[in-house]
Write a structure and sequence with these properties.
Blueprint: H1 5-15, H2 20-31, H3 44-49, E1 57-60, H4 68-78, E2 82-86, H5 92-105, E3 108-112, H6 121-129, E4 141-146, H7 154-159, E5 161-164, H8 171-180, H9 184-188, H10 193-212, H11 229-245, H12 251-262, H13 270-283, H14 286-290, H15 311-319, H16 336-355, H17 367-381, H18 388-394, H19 403-432, H20 440-450, H21 456-461, H22 469-489, E6 494-496, H23 503-518, E7 525-531, E8 548-551, E9 554-556, E10 559-561, E11 566-568, E12 576-578, E13 582-588, E14 597-603, E15 621-628, H24 633-638, E16 642-644
Parallel strand pairs: 1-4, 1-5, 2-3, 3-4, 6-8, 14-16
Antiparallel strand pairs: 7-13, 8-13, 9-12, 9-16, 10-11, 14-15
Helix pairs in contact: 1-2, 8-10, 8-15, 10-11, 10-13, 11-12, 12-13, 17-19, 17-20, 19-20, 19-22
């Protein structure tokens, strides 16, 4: 028998959880109405009509949304003056004077970012409660914007008219929102209206792309930036100025102010800065004007700038785009959708479960028993600390061998971690039996073990990792085994770089060895990279004359092809692939290749983002390596291709 729509949805949930959300979206659209899955653009006018002079209007802010621009446009259309202030330290008295002036003379008062003025919120509550309809000008309106905050007055929230404007999900919704804020008058108000229409669509598409890339997590952006509609508005105004002021369209200038200033001003990570430049070049270029709708934004050919004379034509085209875009429009591989979709499905199901009725449970908890058994298992698997004196005796500090110092430093770091583990686990077992006090730190240790998470006290002393506890313990033993082999058998022919606490020190030590051997200033040295895909790391027994062999790097967003000896597209549903052994060759005064390679960033873990440590190195980023590629570098930059020393499992 044919399955009912709900049965199909349940089957998809069981077999392909990453496809459950699109299936649920289609189910709702078919059974109820498409309007329930396609959020309408915000309507400030009806919001204003529902208000009164004594009732404040509250915008509940969400990341990436700024209602101030739309509010100013409404005020201009209605001919009402607006007094605006962004709240913060010392701004309370100014805001109070604005409200008093508005109550007596009329006009609107906009108090932005109320969550930043926690100390003034009680005073604002008092002012709102004392608004008297008989003494307040009928044209007065009080507009408030705030992120969700505990300090915001409950009484004001209950009595006010509330509106929230979630950032649109999906490319189509984002584009529709951008075009809801413009009309034919805006599109024609330029000396070059045809160029304005196309480039404005390009900037709007770019805005939607940089916003929607965030859903893919670290492969989309290393850091989740909060781009706003105001960024697009600034680009729109500057676009008109440059088109009116120049005979030739200054594409280079438009790209610079868009990617480096208006949007790029928010971007702090250097890899993200590189990415945003390549993204904007796709949508703001000469081909967009000259080829019109023949110029495609992605390989599918579905996305392009339509040839339209009016605003409605652009809106009609946008409505034909898929509700849920494929990763290819972002320049990403289809695999990028898998992890994102699984996380979205999990969030949806957790939301449904949180609203389900709950019945009381029974049975005594066995949590303590589980924690005690887990503590014993981990204690049995925890390696003993290294004998530092023996290591120093066998590998003393030597001018001609800097890696001895690297090994000693690694041993010291691992000893700190192992010592904490070997002392805290027996202490926790005693605390469970009541022999010692169960401190907050020990309680947290037990809860983390029960949840299969790495305890904070170990994390502080440990290596950067995103693995759950069981995988983390196995990884720790593998790392210790690598160092033990180094200690007992001598410097390895191939270094498992994933096993090092601080790989940057190892790379510097390798350069230092070469510099001292050949009497060259280390500042002149950098690495050449050769992927040794004809050999497996375990087959190599001899060290190279210069430099070193490394292994243990995993690629995301692409794979290494042994047939072409270059980067290639990932295989379907294979999120990570190991890069073959790499030979790092120190070279003096190296001139980096301009083409034929991808300058691939290498990170310790897949979260990509890191902070600058006291050593001057990132806590996550290790270094770039050049990988041969038959494709242009911008393809791999937009695909978010990177290498990692450790995965999540």
């Amino acid at each position: 028998p044919r399955l009912a729509p709900l049965q199909k949805l349940l089957l998809v949930r069981c077999l392909r959880p990453d496809r459950a959300l699109p299936a649920a979206t289609n189910f709702v659209a078919a059974k109820m109405d498409p309007k329930f899955v396609d959020p309408p653009p915000p309507d400030l006018e009806s919001f204003y009509e529902a208000s009164s002079a004594t009732v404040p209007m509250i915008f509940v802010l969400s990341p990436g949304v700024d209602p101030a621009q739309n509010l100013m446009s409404l005020a201009n259309a209605t001919g009402i003056r607006v007094a605006s202030i962004s709240l913060g330290q010392g701004q309370g008295p100014k805001a109070q004077r604005m409200i008093e002036d508005g109550c007596s003379r009329g006009g609107w008062v906009l108090l932005q970012n109320c969550h930043l003025a926690a100390s003034w919120m009680p005073e604002m509550e008092r002012i709102c409660e004392q608004l008297d309809p008989n003494q307040t000008h009928r044209d007065f309106r009080l507009w408030l914007t705030s992120m969700p905050a505990k300090t915001f007055p409950v009484a004001v929230l209950q009595n006010g008219v509330k509106m929230t404007n979630e950032p649109p999900k999906g490319l189509r919704a984002n584009l529709l929102r951008s075009y809801a804020a413009i009309d034919d008058r805006v599109l024609e108000d330029c000396k070059k209206p045809d160029a304005l229409k196309k480039l404005l669509f390009g900037f709007s598409f770019f805005h939607a792309i940089v916003q929607d890339r965030r859903k893919f997590g670290p492969i989309g952006w290393n850091i989740q930036y909060e781009f706003t509609t105001e960024d697009l508005m600034v680009c729109r105004r500057q676009l008109k100025i440059f088109l009116d002021g120049y005979e030739e369209i200054p594409y280079k200038v438009l790209n610079y102010i868009g990617a480096q200033i208006n949007y790029g001003g928010r971007v702090t990570d250097d890899k993200d800065k590189r990415l945003i430049q390549f993204i904007l070049k796709t949508y703001c270029c000469r081909d967009l004007i000259e080829q019109a709708d023949e110029y495609k934004f992605s390989s599918s050919g579905m996305y392009f700038c339509p040839t339209s004379e009016d605003h409605q034509g652009f809106v009609d085209y946008i409505k034909t785009l898929p509700l849920i875009p494929a990763p290819e429009v972002f320049g990403l591989h289809d695999n990028a959708n898998i992890t994102f979709a699984q996380n979205e499905t999990l969030a949806l199901l957790n939301g449904i479960l949180s609203m389900a009725p709950r019945s009381g449970g029974g049975g005594a908890s066995k949590k303590e028993q589980v924690m005690e058994e887990t503590a014993q298992v981990i204690l049995d698997k925890t390696p003993p600390v290294f004998d530092l004196d023996k290591v120093l005796e066998k590998y003393p500090t030597k001018y001609e061998e800097s890696l001895n110092t690297v090994l000693t430093q690694e041993v010291i770091r691992y000893n700190r971690l192992l010592a904490v583990m070997r002392s805290s686990l027996p202490e926790f077992k005693k605390a469970l039996k009541g022999l010692v006090v169960m401190s907050e730190e020990l309680e947290q240790l037990g809860n983390s073990m029960f949840d299969n998470q790495v305890p904070k006290m170990w994390e502080k002393k440990g290596f950067l990792s995103l693995k759950p506890l069981a995988s983390w313990i196995k990884d720790l033993n593998d790392r210790v085994a690598f160092l033990n082999k180094w200690i007992t058998e001598g410097t390895p022919a191939v270094f498992w770089i994933s096993g090092l606490f601080f790989p940057q020190a190892f790379l510097t030590g390798t350069l230092q060895n070469y510099a001292r051997r050949h009497v060259i200033a280390i500042d002149r040295l950098s690495f050449n990279f050769q992927v040794m895909d004809q050999l497996k790391a375990e087959q190599v027994t001899d060290k190279p004359k210069d430099g070193c062999y490394i292994s243990g790097i995993y690629l995301e967003g692409a794979r290494w092809c042994k047939e072409t000896h270059a980067l290639s597209e990932s295989k379907p549903k294979v999120l990570f692939e190991e890069l073959p052994m790499v030979w790092l060759i120190p070279v003096a005064d190296r001139d980096p290749p301009k083409d034929g390679v991808y300058n691939c960033p290498i990170y310790k873990v897949v979260s990509r983002a890191g902070t600058l440590s006291t050593t001057g190195h990132s806590t996550n980023f290790v270094q770039y390596i050049d990988l041969p590629s038959a494709d242009d570098q911008d393809k791999w930059i937009k695909a978010g291709v990177a290498g990692f020393l450790a995965l999540r499992y």
